[in-house]
Amino acid sequence: MEKKLPRIKALLTPGEVAKRSGVAVSALHFYESKGLITSIRNSGNQRRYKRDVLR
């Protein structure tokens, strides 16, 4: 019997979050600097956001 792995929530790029939310990428960076949202840095030091920042 084949086991299915649990789904892993994909992280979003700043551009994807900006497009879906209707705000500029610079606004996301501002919100992050004020502690309103948080990002995760990947191995290339690029920001990634969890999907819950869109809520």
UniProtKB/TrEMBL annotation:
PROSITE patterns: HTH_MERR_1 (PS00552), HTH_MERR_2 (PS50937). One of its GO terms (molecular function) is DNA binding. One of its GO terms (biological process) is regulation of DNA-templated transcription. InterPro entries: DNA-bd_dom_put_sf (IPR009061), MerR-type_HTH_dom (IPR000551). Residues 11-55 form the HTH merR-type domain. SMART domains: HTH_MERR (SM00422). It holds the Pfam family MerR. This is Redox-sensitive transcriptional activator SoxR. It comes from Alkalicoccobacillus porphyridii.
